[in-house]
Amino acid sequence: MDKKSIIGLVLIGAILIGFSYFNSRQTAEYQKVQAHQQDSIARVKKAQEAAKPAAATAELNSTTSKDSAEIASMTEVVGASLANSLKGTEEFYTIQNDLIKVVFSNKGGRIAQVEALKYKRHNGEKLVLFTPEKSKFDLSFYMGQNISTSKFFFEPVNVAKSDQLSGKDSTKSVTFRLHTADASYLEFVYTLKKGSYMVDYKVNFVGMQNKFPQGITDFDIKWAMTAPQQEKGFKNENNYTAIAYKFPGEKGDFEELSPMKEEASEKVSTKIQWINFKQQFFSSILVSKNNFTSADISQTTNPENSGYTKNFTADIRVPFNPTTKSVDMAFYFGPNLFKELKKYDQGFEKVVPLGGWIIRWINRWVVIPVFDVLESHIGSFGLIILILTVLIKLVLFPLTYKSYLSMAKMRVLKPEVDKINEKYPKKEDALKKQQEVMALYRKTGVNPMGGCLPMLLQLPILIAMFRFFPASFELRQESFLWADDLSSFDSIINLPFDIPLYGGHISLFTLLMAVSLYLTSKINTAQMGDTTQQMPGMKFMTLYMMPVMMLFWFNNYAAGLSYYYLLSNLFTLGQTYLIRQTVNDDAIHAKLKENSKKPVKKSRFQQKLEEMAKQQQRMKK
Asked: Model's pTM, two decimal places?
């Protein structure tokens, strides 16, 4: 053992002995403190036991001093009827149709819980949008002092504990009242229709016109909920979970807070038509018939294993004055299914993230209609995606063929381009070299950008598919091959650890997609050769980096998206093979030779290049 090892061992021993001594001292001190605390707790418990009879008597005769003070203050300002409503026992009432079950609480007269009856969570449990413990809905008024409805116990009016729309019923309503005086009350009326995800919400002010001071222009709604994790992949679901809102009008702008940020907030100072606590595939939307005045909204992200995605809060101002007799609002509690959202004619369908501008147009008017037609005739969504891929490839085939021909022309001209490069090896002759290369292309009728343009025209469709599949509600919990849910990741192996940026599982569709992308890139690179004179590292980026990046990026994405890109790459390989069998390089070269014999008209760009070359020669002389 050398000297350094001995010194190291001695130091480690000294540290351990010192730590043990320090820890023993700390333990002794801690035990003294604990003994002192136990003595104090024992004395307090003894005093509490002695005071129990007196405390029990006081509890029977009155509420706590805080509640008594609040009731006394409210009685003086707004009357005994409202003040007495601070006391009560919370009870729940249920009403349901064929689509949703809505649970109401008499405390606050609010909707406390909503269950979507046709759907389940990823683990098979009931799909509940929010629960009483994880939600809040509070109306706040000023009536000499601030009145928050969440503190009061409302009186249910002709409300059964549990009620369900029967075959003969088309609607059912529940009513909750908060009496402010003998002849005046605040009334909440909820109406649920058969076959609808909408719950109409009407706030009536009965005989309350003299209860509010003049000059009031609005009242506040404080709405909050914690969104449960409904889908298998937390990261993917969280990336589509955010507060969204829409400005008034048929073509009113749609906005949402960034779902990628841990925390986000915004003060919206203009009128708002509706506010949506949006999850990936389900929405809770509050809409006003006469628009909201403004709102402060915010969201925070929960830890991955908490069972919840985001916390939503909204402080909303509703237009109101002392003469207002009622305010009409409504809730939507249901799926983010495009055709379902479209039915309500409120612009709800804008929450489906189909992309912007031309990307949304492609999805809205091309992809979705075709997908709906296929879905109406085919039960397997894996087969639907396969047919959709074939249709897209057939539509894009002319562009693919044109791109291949352009690259083939560049390839057969490469020997002549190499001769020009050898002719002008010096950097100062770069302009003249470029001029001769362009002259060659012009004489033979070759467009050097001919291969890029068709690929750029295909790009919007590729992006449209990228936006469509993760947002497609139809793929939710649909299985295909080894994937049990095409809207979430497919996992063939669950790792005992997490790989940064990759995750704790291996998605087979993503792995196969990355391999197919590598093969496609390798064939395209071999076909192009060095005709494009690629920048240093570009070949490495295309051939190796892109497949690896896609492997990491798509591992937590929807399996349906990886499956589509896998099919797309395989069809590209097949098309390339077929085109190669029909396209003859010698015939192309002969055609280009024939083109070079024809007279060529110089373009303005070519004329400008020649002028620059002549000027460069004059400067040298």
From this structure: 0.77
